[in-house]
């Protein structure tokens, strides 16, 4: 091997080495201040992360079962296609009155059928689309469209985990249909985890 070929090979190997290093941390925490039933409606997310993010190949499902949308809140990365399923014995309809979802109306369809919609709108940070059913005016759900894939929903005890976050300084926020909490700065370590707590209050 000539000398400069050897140098080129070394540069290549070290570049691969660096790329393979995990420089990502975990954000863990807890949301409080709301009833247990309402805590899983909280979506915790990073405000803005640079990079291009590919939506998942597997479509998340928004079910209609027992005359309610399941889940009540569905966070998705911009560009994600959501499958809308009707699991009830009655026809349901899905539409959104919001510009963030191009005011789509998928029509009305019977049991067992699926219709899909792609939430293609890019929001500066995050935006939400209300889902409604023309047949049952009391039915309501929300799709929260995310700029980046670093988000999580809280569980009924308010706990959440966002994994594999590239190390760096960010602003972390919480979205909730009825409540709010101040945004916070967060420094994600290259390794290990950092804790964040949110206390929800009235909007
Ligand atoms: Cu319905």
Strand residue content: over 45%
SSE run: HEEEEEEEEEEEEEEEEEE
Bound molecules: copper (II) ion
- Stretches where pLDDT falls below 50 for ≥5 residues? 6-20
**How confident is the prediction overall: mean pLDDT?**
90
Number of domains: 2
Work out the helicity level. under 10%
**Which class do the helix and strand fractions yield?**
mainly beta
CATH class term of the largest domain? Mainly Beta
Task: Count up the helices.
Answer: 1
- Please describe the biggest sheet, giving its number of strands, its sense, and whether it closes into a barrel: 4 strands, antiparallel
Tally of DSSP β-strands: 18
Give the quaternary arrangement of the chains. single chain
User: Under the CATH scheme, which architecture of the largest domain would be assigned?
Assistant: Sandwich
Which geometry do the CA atoms define? Answer: globular
Distance between the termini: 68 Å
């Amino acid at each position: 091997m000539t000398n400069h070929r050897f140098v080129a090979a070394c540069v290549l190997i070290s570049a691969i080495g660096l790329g393979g290093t995990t420089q990502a941390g975990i954000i863990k925490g807890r949301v409080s201040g709301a009833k247990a039933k309402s805590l899983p409606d909280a979506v915790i997310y990073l405000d803005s992360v640079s990079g291009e993010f590919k939506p998942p190949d597997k479509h998340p499902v928004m079910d209609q079962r027992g005359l309610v949308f399941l889940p009540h809140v569905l966070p998705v990365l911009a560009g994600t296609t959501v499958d809308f399923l009707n699991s009830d014995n009655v026809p349901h309809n899905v539409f959104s009155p919001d510009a963030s979802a191009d005011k789509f109306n998928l029509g009305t369809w019977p049991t067992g059928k699926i219709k899909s919609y792609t939430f293609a709108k890019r929001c500066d940070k995050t935006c939400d689309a209300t889902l409604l059913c023309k047949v049952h005016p009391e039915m309501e759900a929300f799709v929260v469209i995310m700029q980046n894939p670093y988000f999580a929903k809280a569980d009924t005890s308010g706990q959440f985990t966002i994994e594999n976050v590239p190390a760096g300084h960010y602003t972390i926020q919480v979205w909730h249909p009825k409540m709010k909490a101040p945004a916070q700065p967060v420094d994600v370590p290259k390794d290990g985890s950092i804790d964040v707590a949110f206390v929800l209050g009235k909007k």
